[in-house]
Amino acid sequence: MALSIVIGICYIFWSFLKVYIFGFLALVRQLLQRHKIPELQLRTGKIALVTGGTSGIGFHVSLGLVSKNIHVIMGGHNTEKGKEAIRKIREEFPNAKVDFMHLNLASFKSIQDFVENVKARCSSIHILVNNAGVMFAPYEETTDSLESHFQINYLGHLYLTQSLMDILKNSGTDEFYSRIINLSSVVHNVGSLNLLNFGRRYSHWWEYSPHAAYSDSKLYIALSSWGLSEQLKQENSKVTVNTLHPGIVNTALYRHVHWSIKWLLDIVARFTYLPPPEGADTILYLALSPDVERETGIYYDNCQEQKTCQMSYSDDIINQMQDISNDTIQDKSQ
Asked: In terms of Cα–Cα distance, which of 118, 150, 116 is closest to 332?
């Protein structure tokens, strides 16, 4: 037992160290290589769905899409925040087509209800932005008995995407392929994938690292995005799938950071992190720009194509992960 605790503490510390070292390097690059988002054209008549669209980066994605004459459906678990987000958007765009629908990614039943509501109200979905997420949260299991980062960041969004795939396929045209945009993170590069313990639950505090849980979930997003893009290409579907790092952005996602270092991060964030409107730029670029029409299976950072981790190019690993993910979804969604 004592040895297990020591090994666990080392694992927790190493996971913490990896995330912050890699994050610091990404922040330095961000400060040195900022680019402005290209001018984006109107997309009148298009419908977009944004998870977590009521606050943080997601709110500014919703606002940016509305500004281009897009009908936006914001998915979120807090109805009051949804009402407030709509009020703020209509203050700036009085004629905005914007709606809120309840969505709790920690519940497969909630995802099912959300999809039913979307399909009842919309005949088309042209843009799906899988934005919602949690970061560095203490260990918690969802209503489906899965670790929270694993389900909310990754598996819930995968299930949502699969459930909306028919409407996304039917909405794509030669002029505008439907676009699936998945938010990953630069720290997916320090994530790990153990197929034997994929999506595992934890019994002891020393087994769980919130930093590893977050970076791992972002790796799963990058891998599944690549796998889905290849599948859709083989089917000749008019749907693209891309993923991105939005930047190091000053949002409420950092609320779970331990108090012993949060004060320092708050100071750093104030002077160096991107504000949420700029964190939305790459997402809006992928959602709206003609430059990425029919581009798929690509990882973007700062509106530019970037290489992702080597694991993202391993068909065998991705296929195995997809099979396990699909089995878990089938089991939990029944």
From this structure: 150
Q: At what angle do helices 156-171 and 108-121 cross, to 10 degrees?
A: 20
Query: CA 145, CA 150: separation in Å to the nearest integer?
Result: 11
Q: Strand pairing partners for 44?
A: none
Helical segments of 72-209, H only: 79-92, 108-121, 148, 156-171
Query: Is the pTM higher than 0.85?
Result: yes
- Per-residue DSSP letter, 138: P
- CA 246 to chain centroid, in Å, comes to 10
**What phi, psi does 147 have (nearest 5°)?**
-60, 140
Q: How far apart are CA 215 and CA 218, in angstroms?
A: 5
Q: What is the tens place of the pLDDT at every residue in 121-164? A: 999 999 999 999 999 999 999 999 999 999 999 999 999 999 99
First to last CA, the chain: 38
Q: What is the pLDDT of residue 178?
A: 98
Q: Is position 220 annotated as part of the catalytic site? A: no
From 214, 220, 285, 299, the catalytic residue = 214
CA-closest candidate to residue 125, choices 175, 167, 76: 167
Q: Per-residue pLDDT tens for 245-287?
A: 999 999 988 998 888 889 989 999 999 999 999 999 999 999 9
Report angle CA 140, 219, 274 to the nearest 5 degrees.
85
CA gyration radius, the chain = 19
Find where tokens 């990425």 sit. 292
**Spatial separation of the C-alpha atoms in residues 66 and 91, rounded to whole Å:** 12
Q: Record the tokens describing residue 70, joined without a space.
A: 């897009």
Report residue 29 as tokens.
Answer: 């690059």
Segment (H or E) for 128: strand 127-130
